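Hey team,

Filing this mostly as a record. A colleague (T.K.) asked me to run one chain through the structure pipeline before their review meeting, and I want the input and output archived in the tracker in case anyone asks later how it was produced. No errors, nothing strange. Just documentation.

Input sequence:
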Amino acid sequence: MIVEVIEVGPLQVNCIILGCEATRKAVVIDPGADIELIEASLSKHRLSVELILNTHGHFDHIGANRALKASTGALLMIHKDDVELLQMARLQAATYGLNADDSPPPDKELQEGQTLSFGEESLQVLHTPGHSPGCVCFYREGLLVSGDTLFAGSVGRTDLPGGNHEQLLQSLRDKVVGLPPETKVICGHGPVTTIARELRHNPYLAS
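Output structure:
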């Protein structure tokens, strides 16, 4: 599988492109900004985007939804509990003195346990509320895209509207801790890590 991580926007979001090598079909996860960088990567790998996936609805993860959907025609998906946030990106960004485009509404909603296919590859949806009500992670054997649920050595903040610290810890216990230790984790911000490393060093996974 083709895996490319592009750091986008002023808050340095990890936008993740996953592509099927056999069919060149792809998904783009969290296109937060910098549409030209995303499109350049897609072109480099000769990928056709089938799905635009948001791990959650905060502005820094959805800011290029509209532009990417316009250029690719791909289906946009987010969990139902974060749909409302898509229309608040401009307002959210303004509180930080930044700009962002509101997102179009989703074409479909993500659900716990759902399988998303692109070419010969697939991802499983894990609903992991806490950072926001509709936070999700995407999993396939050997890889977890964690959004802002889990970071290297930390977790997503829960002091924003809809955040819930206890719920986030429960999500980690229920959906993340039991994954195979060798699983590579691409976080919403910051460096790549593994489940094994986080079990050893992340205090939130030990709580």
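Quick notes for T.K.: The two ends are 34 Å apart (CA to CA). The mean pLDDT is 96.
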